[in-house]
Amino acid sequence: TSSVLLTPMRGKGGVNVEQPIYTTRAHVFQIDPTTKKNWVPASKQAVTVSYFYDSTRNSYRIISVDGTKVIINSTITPNMTFTKTSQKFGQWADSRANTVFGLGFASEQQLTKFAEKFQEVKEQAKLARDKSQEKVETLSNHSQSESGRDTPSTNQASSINGTDDEKISHVGPEAALLQSENERLKSAVEQSNTNAKKWETELQTLRENNARLVDALQESSANVESWKKQLSACKEESDTLRNKIAELEAQCNEANQERQKNAQLTVRVKELEAELQDKEQELENLRKQAEIIPQLMSECESITSKLQAAETRNKELEGRIEGLQLDIDDSRQKQGNMKIELKKLMDVLDGKLDELQEFRQGLSKLGADN
Fold first, then answer.
1. How many Cα atoms sit within 13 Å of 70 on the Cβ side?
2. DSSP per residue over 247-298, as a string?
3. Contact by Cβ (8 Å): 54, 9
4. 53 SS3 class
5. What does pLDDT average to over the chain?
6. Contact 111, 92 (CB under 8 A)
7. pLDDT tens sequence across 14-27
8. 203: closest CA among 195, 227, 235, 9?
9. How many CB atoms sit inside 10 A of residue 9's CB?
10. pTM metric for this prediction
11. How far is CA 218 from CA 105, 223, 298, 324, in A?
């Protein structure tokens, strides 16, 4: 399809006979020729897709170009069908191109409008075909009636010198006109038969393509059902495994709890053993201390007398501390009085400084005036 000329066809006098009648944008796909199942992108991005009408041939076709490459050049026939396969995707089979085209639109409205236009163009193509067939049938019937009513030539023979050795045939102008008309009608009938055979071939090809598409659709449906069953089986197996894992986790949790309890009991036993050893050591120490109690009593009496002497001295020191505290309070009071007097002096000094500043400003003004 990449070698098809896309410039508008021109008739006599340079008049365009093929014009775009509808244009939209979509992503273009083609069916994989090997698998007949998968879609192969024909464009990297959304491209322009247009309906063209050829007024000379009275035909319609869909054309799309990606850069300099023609990716769709499909002549619409009455046997074609545009099928919506999803909300934004549609497809149709082209027997002449031996492929299936797919279009992905940006919205469902664009897909609906393109499908409606396809149906409209398809009906127009059907009407054009019916008119063409009626015209061919009319010409064929007219030719047969003319040939059955009169022969295309009349022969007139005469004998010269009483012998039949030489004959002269005279053909009139009306017979020659009828003969040429008959030849033209015969060629039109032959062309009609050729077109009919070609249409039959296209119809057979379309039927084969439809059969292949139906088989592919049925196979896809069967695969989908198989995948659904496999998915259901996998889900059931997954649920079973999840339940087993949950049971094993519960068992593991119970075992871990038992281990933790055993570990706690072991630790408690070791703690109790350590406490028992400490108690035994304390008891041994108490026994040793009981042996030195008399010595400790004498030392206690000595310490008591020393403590009494220390208390007496402490009372003396407390008296001295009270005297020092009074001196400190007196000193603090004097210091507070000195701070007050110093603050007053600072206030007076600030006032004097302000007066001096004003005096300087006055002198500056006087100097400026002079």
1. 14
2. HHHHHHHHHHHHHHHHHHHHHHHHHHHHHHHHHHHHHHHHHHHHHTHHHHHH
3. yes
4. strand
5. 81
6. no
7. 444 678 999 999 99
8. 195
9. 16
10. 0.38
11. 26, 8, 115, 114
**How far, in whole angstroms, is CA 332 from its chain's centroid?**
85
| Backbone torsion region of residue 93, taken as left when φ is above 0, otherwise alpha when ψ lies between -120 and 50, otherwise beta | beta
Supply the DSSP string of 66-126, one letter for each residue.
ETTEEEEEEE--TT---EE-SSSEEEEEETTTTEEEEEE-SSHHHHHHHHHHHHHHHHHHH
* Residue at token pair 């120490």: 285
Q: Determine which helix (DSSP H) or strand (DSSP E) holds 175, and give its type and residue range.
A: helix 173-291
Dihedral angle computed from the Cα positions of residues 108, 113, 119 and 120, in that order, rounded to the nearest 10 degrees: 170
Q: Residues with Cβ < 8 Å from 213, sequence gap 6 or more?
A: 36, 93, 100
Instruction: State yes or no: pLDDT of 3 exceeds 70.
Output: no
Query: What does the chain come to in residues?
Result: 370
